[in-house]
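We give the entry.
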Amino acid sequence: MSVLVNLIVMLGMLVVVPTGLRLMAPRPPTAIRRAWPLCALAGSAALWLPRGTTAVALAGVYAAGTLALAAEAPRRLRRTRSAAPAELAVLTALLSPCVAALALVAERGGHRLFGFDLEILALTVPHFHYAGFAAALVAGLVCTATGGPLGRFAALSVPAGTLLVLVGYFLGDAAELVGAVVLTAGMWAVALVTWRDVRSRAREAPTRLLLALSAGVLVATMLLALSWALGEATGLPHPDLAWMAATHGLGNALGFALCSVLAWRRLKETPS
């Protein structure tokens, strides 16, 4: 499982996040975007090294990049002075990689941060790159592009669900299940608006295909997330973490996040 998780995390660090940063309006400062590939390469290298000083140092370089990105959230809030749903989603995207990096530094050092097992810390890294950064960003893009109550619901519930899942880490499985329900509702709203509204407006067939894939995959992957959270909370049979990484994790990384950011990049580059 560790090899697959590492590859998923690398995709997030090296492709999904930098592509997503270019989709924000306004974009984060040029200095952050230019430094990001170097930070992401350091973080990627840390994944493959044995736990210890070198891995922690490289993970720390990545953490520094995420801290610089997170620092843009309060600056952006002061500039925009907006609590609109789409803006809250973008702020969540800016902050989420920092949570992932904190877990990465602790896990690479063999430190059970807040008492969590190293396996849980390792899985927190992809979760906050994809459910945190990618999902929140796409929810914000969907909300801005289409408007309407369902788009606003998506832009509010994806960040809320991500936060509730994080809180559930500390409060227990029942609280995490609530977070999973809220996050799933938001992700399914993203899928519906993407399929119904965004896809129909795309002028090019490859863009429509990418949007269709991203929407369709979300239906299945979030159903898996719900089944896992329900099983953890109730003791009912549910997939184990290795199976979840190979299905839910890989599907969200390739089918949702990658297809989404590539589709939105094409949408922004296509003349209207």
Q: What stands out?
A: The radius of gyration is 18 Å.
